[in-house]
Amino acid sequence: MMKYIPYILAGILLFMVLFFGLRHRQEDELQNSYKPPVEQTLPDFTFKTLDGKELRLSELRGKAVLLNFWATWCPPCKEEMPIFEREYKRCKNKGFEVLAVNMDSSEGNLQKFLKENNYSFTIVRPSEDLQKELKLMGFPTSYLLDKNGKIYRIRLGVYKELEKDLKELLGC
Question: N or C: which end of the chain has fewer CB within 10 A?
Answer without folding.
Answer: N
